[in-house]
Structures are given as C-alpha cells and as structure tokens.
Amino acid sequence: MSTVVLQRLSMLSLTVKQLGSLPCLSTSLPTLPSLPSLPTPKPTVSASDVPSLFREPYILSGYRPMGQAWKCYFLSTFQWHNELMNVWTHLLAAPVLLLRCWALLSGNGRTLLDVSALPLALYLLSTLTYLACSVAAHLLQSHSELAHYSLFFLDYVGVAVYQYGCALAHYFYCSDAAWRDIGVGAVFLPGAALLAWLSCTCCCFAKAHYRRPYPLRRKICQLIPTSLAFLLDVSPVVHRLVTGNWEQDSALPFHAGQVAFFLLAAFFFSHPFPECFLSGHCDIIGHAHQVFHLFLVLCTMCQLEALFKDFVAQREVILEVHGEGLIAGAGVSFFVLVLCCLATAVWMHRTVQKQLKMRQP
Ligand SMILES: [Zn+2]
C-alpha cells in the first residue's frame, strides 16, 4: 500500500517538475515575491558584556546585547533571556484578567453602561495599562541606554495609573460609612491622585539620578511615596477587614488575599531573594523580580474578585451615596493623572537624552 502511494507521489513530483520546466509556463506564471526573512536575535551575553546600567545584582548571564534592531527585541519574546519570565508573567495576565472580568459580568447579567460602573471600568483600564507598560519595559529596554530609561519611566507611569485605579475602586465600592466619617474620606481622592503622581515622579527621578552601585537614598526616594500611596489606597479595605463581619461578607477573604499578595510582592520587589543565595542560578527562571510579578498578578486577581463582589453588593446605592457628579469628576481626574504622569515621563526622557548626549565623546 505504502509502495503504491510513494510511486504515485514520485510521479506527481515528476509531473510538477516537467510543468515548471516548460518555457511557456515558466515565463507566464507569476513568481511569488520572496518573504523578507525575520532577523534573529543575537545570543545572550554575560553581565560583564553589558553596561552597568543593565546589570542586576546576582544575575550573571542571560543579558540581551544592546544595539540590535527593534524587531530583535520583539522577537526575543520567544528567546531564553533573563527578562523572559518578567515579560510572560504580565503578558499572560492581561487576557486572563479580561476573560475573568467577562465571565463575572456575563455571570451577573450586567453591563457597564451605568455611571456607577465607571470606577470598575477605570480600574480595569489601569490594570491593563500597568501590565502593558511593564511588558514593553521588560521586552524592549535592552535596545539602548535611552530606551532603558524611557521605558522604565513608562513602567512607573503604569504603576501610578494602577495605584489611582485601585484607589477609585476602593473608595466607591469598598469603603463603608464609618471609614468615610473618620475624615480620611474627605482627602482620600485628591491625596491618592497626588501620591500616585509623586510615586511616578520620585521613581523616575531616582532612576535617572542615581548610578550603580545604587545608594540607599535611591530606594528611600522610590519606596516612601509608593508606600504612602499604598497605605492610603488600601485604608478603606483595611478598615473593612478589621471591622467587617467575615461570615457575612464574602468579599473580605479576597480583600485579605489582595493585601497579603501585595505585601509578598513588595518583599520580593525590595529584596533580591533567592538569587542573593544562589548567584547565577536564578538568571533565567526564579529571580526576585519574577516572583514580584507573580505576586502582583495574584494580588490583582484577588482584587478583581473582591471589587466585583463589592460592586454587585453596592450597586443600587453607589449613586445615592456618592452622587453622579463625584463619580464623573473622579473619572476626569483619572485621565488628568494619566496626562500628568505622561508629561513627567516625557520631561524625564528629555533630561536623560540631554545627559546621554553630553556623555558622548
Ligand atoms: Zn517589572
């Protein structure tokens, strides 16, 4: 049976070859344009082969060389290097979050056409923003020193936008009257917007100003506004966790989850663990920044579940409690914050560009 098939295939191949050799056909048949070949990313190099700006403590290998075509960095999504997991953790999180949100919405038979759902929509937009900015930064930063700085400025914009998206959702869906009455409620939204912008600005400044080996001042400059923003943004949730009824309030375990995962993420963000004990063994998989990404995604997943439960529970009274004007105003403030953060990042990009030009021989 297989011999017969092989014979027929060889006859067919011969016939095709004969047809192609006929002068009338070879001249009249249009030739297919040859496809442009994709560039191949260069092999990764060790830490000593890249400028100190790109080196991470205890990560000894897996660095992508600078100066390749942009396409090579996009294609490095499928190459083994020390940023690969940082890219994929956030790249996969975006569709997972969207699918979960779609399932939650369709499960409740509700649409996002009401003003009361605006904070939820802005929260979702903020999560997608931080995930997209992070993917862009980790995937493309090795192109040049200017790209490294500029893309991490963009990453900080994403973090600030996410902070404010969380603050809006926490305020409108998760806060209870007792928390709003203690006075924090009155300054919460302007305070959250200011601290989000300060976080972005201080992180950009610290990134641009300090050189390796980084002094402690750099960490302080980054952590103080970011920690203050977190403490303020999470305060309505913490109040609920402390005073709420855990047997009746099904959102509380998810809120506890988002706080716990965030604290774990913060630990791995600020400590190079486990690579400080396993130098060179966690270069591709297992270093602290990847673990930080994973816990941040888990925090976001828990947060989405909790927010959605609170949104469904509070929906009938959200407009009555807060008023349509305040919700619409908060929506406008979200986009003002995005513009302020972007303007800061562009200004810092220009400052670094000038510094790098001055350093050139
Ligand atoms: Zn990251």
TrEMBL record:
Keywords from the UniProt entry: Membrane, Metal-binding, Receptor, Transmembrane, Transmembrane helix, Zinc
Location in the cell: Membrane
The keyword Methyltransferase belongs to this UniProt entry's keyword annotation: no
One Pfam family linked to the record: HlyIII
UniProt GO MF annotations: metal ion binding; nuclear steroid receptor activity; steroid binding
Topology within the bilayer: Multi-pass membrane protein
GO cellular component, one term: plasma membrane
Residue positions binding Zn(2+): 138, 289, 293
Record field: transmembrane: 87-105, 117-140, 152-173, 185-208, 220-239, 251-270, 291-308, 328-349
The organism's place on the tree of life at top rank: Eukaryota
Sequence similarity: Belongs to the ADIPOR family.
Name recorded for this polypeptide: Membrane progestin receptor beta
Species of origin: Clupea harengus
